[in-house]
Amino acid sequence: MAKVISIANQKGGVGKTTTAVNVAASMAATKRRVLLIDLDPQGNATMGSGVDKYDVENTCYELLIEDVPAKDVIIKNTAGKYDLIAGNSDITAAEIKLMEVFARELRLRRALESVQDDYDYIFIDCPPSLNQLTVNAMAASDSVLVPMQCEYYALEGLTALMDTIQKLASVVNPNLKIEGVLRTMYDPRNRLANDVSEQLKRHFGDQVYRTVIPRNVRLAEAPSFGTPAMYYDKSSTGAKAYLALAGEILRRRVAK
Question: Ranges for the AAA domain (predicted)?
Answer without folding.
Answer: 2-178
